[in-house]
Amino acid sequence: MKRKDFLRRGMIGAGTILAIPSVLTNCSKDDSAITDAVDETGEVDYESGTSGDCVVSPQETAGPYPIKTPAQLVRENIIADRPGVPLLINIIVQDQSNSCEPVANVLVDVWHCDADGNYSEYGSYTSEHFLRGRQTTDTNGNASFLSIYPGWYRGRAPHIHLEVLDSNENSLKITQIAFPEDVSDEVYSTSEYNGTADTSNNQDGIFQDSLQYNMLDSITGNTTDGFTLTKTIII
């Protein structure tokens, strides 16, 4: 599928497109009990714990550039005028307190930097709103966005910010999604990006103690046709 076809298909109905086969990276979860990942306080120990099927996603900072008016940015296509490798973001929200059943009708906000490492709504881009958006999960807990592969900036590994909120806009989870470095290196070798990121996932202060839970579940595709990302967020 050529890039223009990827974009056209996504704009028609990004919410209906799910990850395709030929997985480049798949951070599969072990079926072992999640008790191995819980410390004496009852909190998940992301640094030493093992993967489980129903581990609450790490709570992370919203960072310095959260969406200022997310209710005004209800849209699937968040690209605006930003160049870059197309990326379809598929988010699945599940409820840890209910055996990780899908959560319908919650709000999912995403935001990330452009290929040059810039965020909209701040600095030189205060009047622009690229690469930010909000969607509501369907009955299967799914929400999708058509975007570009995020760039990087000094001191941070490549990432996407994400917040899940209830229908009254009460925050349920703020987290961040990490990317496999081999895929990022492939993307960043293209002309629209600034070369290899200066910070690895293991050097990143946000991901150091929780990388396996921040890492996307799977990513498929290539730099010509675009990529599809899938990530389950457990609240």
Summarize the structure.
The protein is mainly beta and 235 residues long.
Q: List the uncertain runs.
A: 10-38
Quaternary class? single chain
From the helix content, strand content and strand pairing, which structural class follows?
Answer: mainly beta
CA radius of gyration: 17 Å
Report the span from N to C terminus.
34 Å
Would you kindly provide a written description of the structure presented here, covering whatever features stand out?
This protein has three helices and ten strands. With 235 residues, it is mainly β. Strands 1, 2, 3, 6, 9 and 10 form a six-stranded mixed sheet that branches. A hairpin with a 5-residue loop joins strand 2 (86-95) and strand 3. The termini are far apart. Mean pLDDT is 86; it is low at 10-38.
Provide key terms for this protein.
235 residues; mainly beta; four-stranded antiparallel β-sheet; 3 helices; globular
What's the SSE blueprint?
Blueprint (H helix, E strand, L loop, with lengths): L2 H11 L9 E4 L59 E10 L5 E2 L4 E5 L20 E5 L5 E7 L10 E7 L5 E8 L2 H8 L22 H4 L3 E5 L3 E9 L1
Parallel strand pairs: 2-10
Antiparallel strand pairs: 1-9, 2-3, 2-6, 4-5, 4-7, 7-8, 9-10
